[in-house]
Amino acid sequence: MTSFDPSALLVSRSNSADEGPIIRMSQRARELRAKGQDVVSLTLGEPDFDTPQNIQDAAAAAMKAGFTHYSPVMGIPELRAALSKKLKTENGLDYAAGEICLANGAKQAIANAMLSIIGEGDEVIMLAPFWVSYEITVRFAGGTPVVLHAGVDEGYKVPPSRIAAAITPRTKLIVLNSPSNPTGAVWTRAELLELADIVKAHPHLMVLSDEIYEYIIFDGEMVSIGSLPGMGERTITVNGFSKGFAMTGWRLGYAAAPEPIAKAMGRMQSTISAGANAFVQRAAIAALEGPRDEVERMRLEYQRRRDMVLAGLRAIDGVKIGHIPATFYAFPDVSALLGRKAGNHVIDTTDALCDWLLEEHALATVPGTAFGAPGSLRLSFACSETEIAKAMERLQRALGSLG
User: Fold this and answer.
1) Is the pTM of this model over 0.70?
2) Domains in the chain: how many in total?
């Protein structure tokens, strides 16, 4: 009998679809915890709060009312109307209900958008540090990522002039994430106006604006680039309910775009999966229209945690960290510590540093290689103050021991 190797059937696409370091580090942390080790994990970007009760109640009521069947592929009309109102009143965005496509999480909304407008040979400008899924999805769609880097000294924001210099006739999309995962950076109105002028100077260029952290801002102003003059037709706005409403497991996101693109996203949604969960969509209406007391309480708690993390990181020699105006992430630059020794072992990459921190100090972090910035670490402070205090003590002790 001829031997059969299933792995021989795999195509390159299957290998590129991987969030690598994030999943690897969080899984290793879980495995060590299961063995009884006291591991502090700062890996996943998941709120540690439960979903507000009014949203849970709305989901239960919707199930009892029979909203347990297939939903329209682009979303139920009531939620699309509520989102149209929300985008107008909160963000200054003029999207009709027919220009909004619901998805099974913001990640799928991004994939729907990329697969709708990006093809072989198209270039997509990626502003590093960036969320790992952007690059994966661009490659999955056949596009070419053009990565531009900005470090802590630039506030982790690539100057618009450098973006303009990178645009070619093949550039089709700029991916913008403000507030940013992994840095917490927030683009100002002035910066966005400068970027908008650059985009409008090119007839085939759009912006995909991921705004999922809009409710977790501590300093500064949330500005949607699509609200700026002439940018409504040039912007795909992506958002969701996971972060601000602590609804990660509910899997509901959306994208708003000019109607031809919105309909194309709906076709992608229909081909790959189906309409988002029906009773979750009813709960999302309650989230949008209900009180925001819990959303604000969570934001204030994240701000207290932010302050703890900043104080802890600034006390470590060799670590560079800028201000964190938003989100629940810190992205310290530890490049000055690379090349030092832990015992007889040289720590020469952040991947090696993260492995050492987990194995020797029971602290799980994510290397910056996952985000296009190999000299940094991402720390998620979506965990309790007790865990943060332990994490900062372990990080200070570990990094301080490097010779």
Assistant:
1) yes
2) 2
